[in-house]
């Protein structure tokens, strides 16, 4: 990380809406006029958590309680007020306005604006800053997404070793929900990380051996690897998204807040008498089973000594210490969500908030697999992925999707999240991402446009 000269302040923010929590936090303002938050994760919880974001204004994001929807906003300080902030030698009080701006939520948006009281106390500190992101308008390749008005989109280029060469983004400082990208960045990453450093083949352990609530005898035959691959053999329907979008999944899994409620639903799916191996059936509850088994295994020391890892009994802290910190993710990324009870069970398959730079850093980690966790082999072997019933051009393995271009018959690995979130691995050195809330995951035209651009660059 770089160190920039900055003025650092302790802030207290009091909004005129009861839904927005009163916040005490720290922020730095560089000589170039950019604000950077210094606190990790979200403050407050219900109905919204609050976090500041980097940018030319005091930007913030609200995260919906028990969900992954994000609502971005800005606090407007006049030029005179910003100068007052820089010149302050003691606590000052400012009255400012705020408004919600961009929102990434497929089912809800708010037209909120009003007044906020800002109390600022100058401090002394240095400021760690993540690498700069270049505006997309300055990129040598201008992808044209098929989606109308996406929240943010962009692309990144690396060298052969995975070092970032360039990242171009339409909105580099906006907060975005990861939704089911978390299945890769949280659940799969944690499972493969623990497997890599354990003497135990943890993915071969049964669900029942780590989750006593799964009482059906059939869960003894279902492994953690099966849950990672969405092939538990426990389901109601194989039709695409039938289990995932069922009323029972929504009411008894997504909307409930406690671990007891979520695990009850996750364990309730009946075993099906189907050909072995089990078919692919997409269920966020399966990822919850995996995350629960991993967290239980850590807490009960079932995985033995994890040599070479900063080990922790909490699944989120294990990721923060061993992946987030080395990747130098933003404070916002330290926001892995969990159940609202004493166990605080990590959801695993959703509940992560990121800046575009964080998304690219985690995607690059998957793409280049610097810790040799197995992601590189997964990306390179679509032939080992499971066909998706009813769609011969789609496959799935270990949280990663594969799409076959009918024109070239080439398989493209990609990540997919609720509402219209995609990360496409275009080749070994380029990736493309888009976040929207229009339930539109198309990217074929972007791939073909990228191929045309690469052809133009060829000697």
UniProtKB/TrEMBL annotation:
Keywords: Hydrolase. It comes from the Bacteria. The keyword Hydrolase applies. The keyword Isomerase does not apply. InterPro entries: Beta-lactam-related, Beta-lactam/transpept-like. One of its GO terms (molecular function) is hydrolase activity. Residues 175-428 form the Beta-lactamase-related domain. It holds the Pfam family Beta-lactamase. This is Serine hydrolase.
């Amino acid at each position: 990380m770089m160190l920039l000269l900055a003025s650092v302040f302790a802030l207290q923010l009091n909004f005129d809406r009861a839904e927005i929590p009163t916040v005490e936090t720290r922020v730095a303002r560089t000589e170039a006029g950019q604000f950077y938050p210094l606190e990790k994760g979200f403050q407050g919880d219900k109905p919204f958590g609050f976090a500041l974001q980097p940018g030319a204004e005091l930007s913030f994001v609200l995260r919906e309680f028990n969900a992954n929807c994000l609502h971005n906003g800005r606090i407007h300080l006049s030029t005179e007020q910003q100068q007052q902030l820089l010149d302050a030698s003691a606590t000052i009080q400012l009255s400012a306005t705020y408004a919600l701006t961009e929102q990434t939520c497929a089912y809800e948006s708010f037209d909120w604006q009003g007044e906020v009281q800002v109390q600022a106390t100058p401090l002394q500190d240095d400021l760690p800053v993540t690498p700069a992101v270049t505006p997309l308008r300055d990129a040598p390749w201008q992808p044209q997404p098929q989606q109308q008005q996406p929240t943010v989109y962009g692309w990144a280029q690396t060298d052969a070793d995975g070092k970032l060469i360039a990242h171009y983004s339409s909105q580099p400082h906006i907060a975005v929900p990861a939704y089911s990208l978390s299945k890769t960045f949280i659940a799969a990453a944690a499972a493969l990380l623990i497997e890599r450093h354990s003497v135990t083949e943890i993915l071969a352990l049964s669900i029942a051996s780590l989750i006593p609530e799964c009482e059906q005898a059939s869960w003894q035959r279902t492994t953690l690897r099966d849950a990672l691959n969405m092939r538990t053999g426990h389901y109601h329907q194989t039709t695409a998204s039938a289990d995932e979008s069922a009323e029972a999944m929504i009411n008894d899994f997504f909307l409930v807040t406690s671990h007891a409620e979520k695990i009850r639903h996750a364990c309730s799916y009946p075993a099906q008498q189907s050909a072995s191996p089990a078919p692919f059936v997409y269920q966020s509850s399966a990822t919850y089973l995996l995350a629960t088994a991993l967290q239980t295994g850590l807490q009960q020391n079932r995985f033995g000594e994890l040599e070479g890892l900063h080990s922790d009994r909490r699944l989120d802290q294990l990721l923060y210490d061993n992946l987030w910190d080395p990747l130098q993710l933003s404070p916002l990324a330290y926001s892995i969500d969990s159940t609202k009870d004493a166990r605080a069970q990590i959801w695993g398959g959703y509940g992560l908030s990121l800046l575009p730079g964080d998304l690219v850093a985690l995607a690059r980690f998957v793409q280049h697999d610097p810790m040799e966790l197995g992601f590189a082999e997964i990306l390179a072997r679509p032939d080992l992925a499971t066909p998706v019933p009813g769609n011969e051009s789609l496959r799935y393995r270990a949280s990663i999707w594969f799409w076959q271009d009918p024109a070239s018959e080439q398989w493209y690995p990609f990540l997919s999240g609720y509402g219209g979130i995609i990360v496409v691995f275009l080749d070994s050195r380029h990736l493309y991402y888009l976040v929207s809330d229009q339930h539109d995951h198309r990217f074929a035209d972007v791939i073909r446009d990228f191929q045309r651009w690469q052809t133009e660059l060829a000697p």
